[in-house]
Amino acid sequence: MTEPKRLHVITWGCQMNVYDSGRMADVLAPLGYAPAAEAAGADMVILNTCHIREKAVDKVFSELGRLRQLKDASDGRMILAVAGCVAQAEGAEIIARAPYVDIVLGPQTYHRLPEMVARASRAGNKVIETDFPPEDKFDHLPDSATPQGVTAFLTVQEGCDKFCSFCVVPYTRGAEQSRPAAAILREARHLVGQGAREITLLGQNVNAWHGDGTDGSTWGLGRLLHALANIPNLLRLRYATSHPRDMDDDLIAAHRDIPILMPFLHLPVQSGSDRILAAMNRKHTAVDYRRIVDRLREVRPDLALSSDFIVGHPGETQADFDATMTLVRDVGFAQAYSFKYSRRFGTPAAGAPDQVPEAEKDRRLQMLQALLREQQSRFAAGCVGLTLPVLFTGPGRHPGQISGRSPFLQPVHLSGHSDLIGNESLARIVAAHPNSLAGTLVQERLIA
Ligand code: 5AD
Ligand code: SF4
Predict the structure, then answer these.
(1) Given the CA of residue 344, which atom of ligand 1 is nearest to it?
(2) What separation in Å is there between the alpha carbon of 9 and the centre of ligand 2?
(3) What 3-state DSSP class applies to 201?
(4) Whose atoms come closest to the Cα of 267: which ligand?
(5) How confident is the model at residue 184, as a pLDDT?
(6) 169 CA to middle of ligand 2, Å?
């Protein structure tokens, strides 16, 4: 029997990293690694990093400084690995500046982690693996082995060919790759067998998914969602993150035809100005975006929208920013993420001459965030008095309470027995708090 070892994974960034951290733990389990809650005393620590905005590299080195002390305290026994997009972009620099790091691995190489651990365990070896290998990473990763919660993530697509002017993803995650439908369906059934009731399909450009179908033809995401919706006991489906260009007719129709596809969509628009959208290389206009939203709301009137925004992209004038504010007012978002443009080395926008001053970016961000916050509160307040299905995900903060999620991804707290966890029931929403809703049970709908 392999001696038990403790593995601690620190995850920063997007849901894809959360999913990848789980898969890394899964590939290391056969080597005897079991999850540890803390880095102190662990036999191996993986820092899974994010490169999307500025200061990412500084943040990594500062965390590595802290981990170095824990490694020293273990007499150097602890294996320290850096994964994720900073590892992909800065592999050699990490080993040069932090020689106590044993392994640097990019997102395409996680399936080879056991072999890297073996190589690093031979004293003094450093391992850097940041190639984009020709083989398909998905073929080599095990299905989720660790028991998941009621809500689970499933990566169906990785990488991006869109090359937005500001974004590092096409460089750190590589070209678009779609996983075949059969493998996705198998993993989804497995997750549901382990208790998952809601699955969120993940991909940097998830709605660009086009993979081999189970009938030999190529499927798009709409078709895949139909196949997933047939899995018994799966109560909810979601997908993130999408690009407006890839919202095709089939996918829009899926929002009408699949009851378990939740009426909540994260559809980043980034800007409301056509000039800036063109500079961003987004390949759509503000009107294109509005049309897509109109079509989605026609087929699913209760659809709530979320988006990403960037203020202060090079060349953004006050008029461009005003166009973004107008789009936000017209479309109305239930929730959103907004960022100041952050210059990423190697991306086209980083070299643009007309950078927007930091103070101006700050001012615009505050205005946009105030508007988005107001819309989010208004949306939540609008839920009060409604009866909504809630999927219960875990115990609440107080005894006798349970918590769950609305169809629109809002946390809902109410009084109820923990037997309900994993089930969906109707709840009447009685109050809206800044980041959650309070409800009372109307009806219990237990599934087998
Ligand atoms: N600066 C600011 N925000 C960015 N994003 C991606 N790259 C940058 C950048 N260089 C934002 C986009 C994207 C989200 C994941 O992060 O809004 O949709
Ligand atoms: Fe980055 Fe998304 Fe644009 Fe791809 S589509 S380059 S991931 S912002």
Answers:
(1) 10
(2) 26
(3) strand
(4) 1
(5) 97
(6) 6
- Give the C-alpha separation, 228 to 182, whole Å: 10
Ligand 1 pocket test target in 164, 165, 167, 343 with most atoms within 8 Å of CB:
167
Domains and CATH numbers, the chain: 5-129 (3.40.50.12160), 138-381 (3.80.30.20), 387-447 (2.40.50.140)
Element (H, E) at 362: helix 358-383
pTM: 0.87
CA separation for the pair 44, 79 (Å, rounded): 4
Burial class of residue 230 in the structure, from the number of CB atoms within 10 Å of its CB (0-12 exposed, 13-18 middle, 19+ buried):
exposed
Q: 279, 165 in Cβ contact below 8 A?
A: yes
Ligand 1, pocket residues at CB < 6 Å:
52-53, 166-167, 268, 270, 308, 310, 339, 341-342, 344
Within 10 Å of residue 370's Cβ, how many Cβ atoms?
10
Kindly state if the Cβ of 207 falls inside 6 Å of ligand 2: no
**Cα 83 off chain centre by:** 16
Joined tokens for residue 385: 């008095």
| Beta carbon of 53 within 6 Å of any ligand 2 atom | no
pLDDT at 448: 38
pLDDT of residue 371: 98
DSSP 31: G
Residue 226: name the closest of 263, 260, 187, 265 by CA.
260
Q: Band of the pLDDT at 297, cuts 50, 70, 90?
A: very high
Pick the ligand that lies closest to the CA of residue 266: 1
Nearest CA to ligand 1 atom 12: 308
Nearest ligand for residue 308 CA: 1
Sequence-ordered alpha helix ranges (H) in 45-180: 56-73, 84-97, 113-121, 137-140, 169-172
Q: For ligand 1, what atom is nearest to the CA of residue 308?
A: 17
DSSP 282-303: -S--HHHHHHHHHHHHHH-TT-
pLDDT at residue 127, rounded to an integer: 85
C-beta neighbour count of 297 within 10 angstroms: 16
Ligand 2 closest atom vs CA 168? 1
pLDDT per position as a tens digit, 197-209: 999 999 999 999 9
Residue 214 near residue 182 (C-beta atoms within 8 A): yes
Residue of 263, 208, 213 whose CA lies nearest to 238 = 263
pLDDT band of residue 15 (cuts 50, 70, 90) is confident
Instruction: Please identify, by atom number, the ligand 2 atom nearest to the C-alpha of residue 163.
Output: 6
Please say if the pLDDT value at position 447 is more than 50.
no
- Residue 324's SS3 state is helix
